[in-house]
């Protein structure tokens, strides 16, 4: 899909609010990129922190490449860096 700006719904913002020190600091919009566009990049850096991300990051890095886990496609990128 294309790169685009999307509005974040209230549930998403509430879920992320802990990372932004409160709902009032949580963004209302986000930029989203399709996997195809990301794979076209010369270099990709994926950054993740917190125990809550550990299972999905493990699946992304060590699991099967699948549409169910879009970040798993980074296993096929020639210059992907994972910062954990």
Describe this structure in words.
The longest helix is centred in the C-terminal third of the chain and has 9 residues, at 54-62. The protein has helices at 10-16, 35-39, 54-62, and strands spanning 4-7, 29-32, 44-47, 80-83. The chain has 2 domains: 1-32, no CATH class; 35-84, no CATH class. α3 (54-62) links the parallel β3 (44-47) and β4 (80-83). The strands form 2 sheets. It has a two-stranded antiparallel sheet with strand order 1-2. The chain has a two-stranded parallel sheet with strand order 3-4. The chain is α+β, with helices and mostly antiparallel strands and 84 residues long. It holds the Pfam family Glucosamine_iso. This is Glucosamine-6-phosphate deaminase. Keywords: Hydrolase.
Low-confidence stretches: none
Reading the helices and strands in chain order gives EHEHEHE
Spatially, the strands of the biggest sheet line up as 1-2
Count of extended strands: 4
Biggest sheet overview: 2 strands, antiparallel
Number of helices: 3
Report strand %: 15-25%
Helix content: 25-40%
Radius of gyration: 14 Å
Number of domains: 2
Q: Structural class, from secondary structure content?
A: alpha+beta
- Tell me the span between the first and last alpha carbons: 27 Å
Q: What number is the mean pLDDT?
A: 96
Inertia-based shape: globular
């Amino acid at each position: 899909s294309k790169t685009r700006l999307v509005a974040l719904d209230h549930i998403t913002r509430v879920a992320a609010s802990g990372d932004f020190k409160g709902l009032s600091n949580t963004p209302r919009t986000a930029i989203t990129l399709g996997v195809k566009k990301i794979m076209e990049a010369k270099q990709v850096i994926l950054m993740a922190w917190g125990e809550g991300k550990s299972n999905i990051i493990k699946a992304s890095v060590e699991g099967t490449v699948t549409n169910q886990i879009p970040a798993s496609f980074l296993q096929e990128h020639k210059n992907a860096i994972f910062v954990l």
